[in-house]
Design brief:
- The chain has four helices and six strands.
- It is α+β, with helices and mostly antiparallel strands.
- The protein has two domains: 36 residues, no CATH class; 81 residues, PH-domain like, CATH 2.30.29.
- It has a three-stranded antiparallel β-sheet with strand order 1-2-3, with no helix packed on it. It has a three-stranded antiparallel β-sheet with strand order 4-5-6, covered by helices on one side.
- The model has no long low-confidence stretch (mean pLDDT 79).
Length: 130
């Protein structure tokens, strides 16, 4: 699909229909390779951080075009669910903000087990179980 779009963009930019194999096959492939490895990757690359404070967990992602900050206090944690990717922390937000109110603690993090134990303690303290 991307190749067809790039083929159309190339034809439109130079205001001529594609004429040979280079225009039809190779130019879109070269443009696709340039877009996926060139300056656009820097535009969308993110710096991510996960902070576990005394009474909160916070996720931040920052790129050149967007910023994302999710902050959940320990008394607002409603659910901890372990997935293949890691531990999903959910808060008491309304259903409409489901995607914006979750924090994923990646299982690949070196501190994963410590963070998981802390969050489980917070959840147990909030529900009154031990």
């Amino acid at each position: 699909m991307l190749v067809l779009f790039l083929q159309w963009a190339h034809s439109a930019a130079f205001k001529r229909p594609p004429r040979d194999a280079f225009d039809v096959i190779f130019m879109p492939l070269l443009l696709a390779a340039w877009f996926t490895t060139g300056p656009l990757t820097r535009l969308f690359s993110e710096r991510k951080s996960l902070t576990l404070g005394e009474d909160f967990i916070e996720y931040r992602a920052k790129s050149r075009i967007s910023r994302d900050r999710r902050h959940i206090r320990r008394d607002r944690i409603t659910s901890l669910r372990e997935t293949e990717e890691g531990l999903l922390v959910q808060d008491q937000s309304k259903m409409g903000t489901f995607m914006l109110s979750n924090i994923l603690v990646p299982a690949s993090m070196p501190e994963y087990n410590e963070i998981k134990e802390t969050l489980l303690r917070w959840k147990a303290a909030a529900t009154g179980t031990s």
